[in-house]
Specification:
- The structure is a single chain.
- By secondary structure, the chain is mostly beta strands.
- It has one domain (11-70).
- The chain contains 1 helix and 5 strands; from the N terminus they run βαββββ.
- The radius of gyration is 13 Å and the shape is globular.
Length: 80
């Protein structure tokens, strides 16, 4: 699930560490762990490129293409 509608405090998971531009991939490989969950501090959505700042690594911007929003119990469909 895309994180482009995420707000501050939303939990996101690193699922595509090898997506995006080469500098994006390098930054992710040096600072983050695939499968780990992080918290959105700030999200900037642009026309062709969007970035997210994580609570866990303040001041560093990451390409949103690397992440999916973590599904919560609230998001799961009801079973009948």
């Amino acid at each position: 699930m895309s994180i482009l509608g995420a707000t501050s405090g939303t939990r996101i998971r690193l699922v595509r560490p090898n997506a995006g531009y080469d500098p994006d991939i390098k930054r992710v490989s040096e600072l983050l762990t695939e499968g780990s969950v992080y918290t959105v501090a700030q999200l900037r959505v642009g026309d062709s490129h969007s970035t997210v700042v994580l609570v866990e690594i303040p001041g560093m911007r990451f390409n949103t293409v690397h992440f999916d929003e973590v599904e919560t119990e609230r998001d799961k469909p009801c079973e009948s």
